[in-house]
Amino acid sequence: MSFSTLFGLFAGISIVLIAMGLGSPLSIFFNLPGLMIVIGGTIAATMIRYSMSDSFRAIGMSFRVMKVSSEIKDLHELVDLTEDLLRLSRSKGLLAMDNYEINHAFYANGVRMLVDGYSLDLVKQALKEKNKLLVEKAEISSGVFRAVGEAAPAFGMIGTLVGLIQMLADLSDPAAIGPAMAVAMLTTLYGAMIANLFALPMADKIESWAQGESYRQMLILEAIESIGQGHNPAVMRDLLAPYLQGVKKAGIDG
Length: 254
Fold this sequence. Notes:
Blueprint: H1 2-23, H2 32-49, H3 52-66, H4 75-92, H5 105-115, H6 120-168, H7 177-229, H8 233-245, H9 247-250
Helix pairs in contact: 1-7, 2-6, 2-7, 3-6, 4-7, 4-8, 5-6, 5-7, 6-7, 7-8
């Protein structure tokens, strides 16, 4: 997922820049006033719709989505891990899991709570709250980037209108109309590129990532419950089987 995001972002920007540079120097596509209108207006409109903390959280979540994580992602591997923990806890008790290395923060947190003596109901409640918080943060972060994707083209059009008004205000030099029109159109280009090469794809990526993480965490929650109740490994696998069957439906690369 992270690789596809970085590759898509790099490839998209590179292809557009190369195509732009083939017909003319890239310098003609730079216009400072146009950039100020599009970027400044987009930031202002987004800040009006969302708080400063939500905006910064969205930026942080975008880095989290693109970051290559070493945590366990494969659902089958999580089920195998659960079987190991079940066999360990059934033979030596819950405290024996304290030294078991779990390469998944959400899973490790649930196991630690069991080891510390928290009741199973309390552990489940805490993990459900964490899952709910993840989904809520992802929805807000996705909304921030979607707001950017909506505002950028709009301010690109505003910049174009400003440029056209300035051009039409002085038609005494016909030779300057062409270059002035080109500058006026640049803001539309800026807005379209920001929206379609970055903001909207990032919004969709955050939603997809959150869906996958939430699905994975729900499996872990069921796994923690099986460990807490001391289920037989075969029973545990039967309980978690529906999650493995729903991998494609949830959009998770299992």
